Known about the structure:
heterodimer; A: mainly beta; globular; B: mainly beta; six-stranded mixed β-sheet; five-stranded antiparallel β-sheet; 56% strand
Amino acid sequence: xxxxxxxxxxxxxxxxxxxxxxxxxxxxxxxxxxxxxxxxxxxxxxxxxxxxxxxxxxxxxxxxxxxxxxxxxxxxxxxxxxxxxxxxxxxxxxxxxxxxxxxxxxxxxxxxxxxxx
Amino acid sequence: xxxxxxxxxxxxxxxxxxxxxxxxxxxxxxxxxxxxxxxxxxxxxxxxxxxxxxxxxxxxxxxxxxxxxxxxxxxxxxxxxxxxxxxxxxxxxxxxxxxxxxxxxxxxx
Lengths: 117, 109
């Protein structure tokens, strides 16, 4: 299985500021994703992080608000820009396509709990 | 986005009881995954089912994928307090993993 770490694990931020979340996978993976989980809710896919090209965003999410980088096969960042209290959520990094494991098997990081005041 | 309906939404049982959680959709999935999530942590993968009719067992947990690959169930035998958590099913369609809303399970001693 893949081990995924995220930094920071939690943060409290002021309205209007930006936060960059880092995601590190311990093995090379073909696909990386970013999800959001609002309190008491299920997971919503924000975007697919593509290596060396622009991320693919789901409906309702835009690059200006959630810029994403993926410089290599094990690392990605998600920035939450110009934050408002509505952005308070858990942000989860996820990865799939680990060598030797079925291509559908998807793993998740521990999440970053963001509170915006 | 294909919808996955999970039932029940909440379940509170006593230690030793059996339970079944259902995950249903009108869409066909190439695979379906079950996760358990504890408060403050990310979802932890329990199982991936790929073949219609497939049954997988993980200790006291039994997972079944429907013949038509549209639904799945999770059965827990003799539940333990350590089984407490949010159980999420997620179906793979194309590149995306679509999640149900989850079943919150509480097992009391």
